[in-house]
Amino acid sequence: MSMWRVPQNRKLSDVTFFVTASLLRRSPIFGQTKAAQIALDSLQFFRKRGEIILYGYVIMPDHVHFVARILVPHTLPDIMRRFKNFVAHELSKGPIWEKGYISAAIPNEIVYAQKLNYLHYNPVKAGLVTEAEQFEFSSAKEYSKGEPYQTIDS
What we know:
By secondary structure, the protein is α+β, with helices and mostly antiparallel strands. It has a single domain (10-142), classed as Transposase IS200-like (Alpha-Beta Plaits), CATH 3.30.70.1290. Helix content is 36%, strand content 19%. The longest helix has 17 residues, at 109-125. The radius of gyration is 15 Å and the shape is globular.
């Protein structure tokens, strides 16, 4: 089964997505700890309110990847609009995001594992750390601990 792309305006719920959102002109705003924490806090807000089930994330200096199931009655376009607006507002920097985002529905466990692996090893590939678990704004460390998750859902 191949991965299928979903138009951003499609109103789907109860679907797991791999999502990428990039900062305007790939500006490294999230290289600052405070800014990256704001982005993570925003994802946690949706998680704690029961709007998403967050399976994995990485907040890179110039973009964000995450894997999440969007729960009924919410939709990915709604979550992304609110996520991007909140982060931009909290950073008080005006427009910070590239228009839109990339999303791909995850059709099976094989693609799910591939996407989690991809996002967790993104900081290693970028040369920011030597081990995925070392990157502060990633769920990789939670998967490696074997303890109850704090920032993601099982």
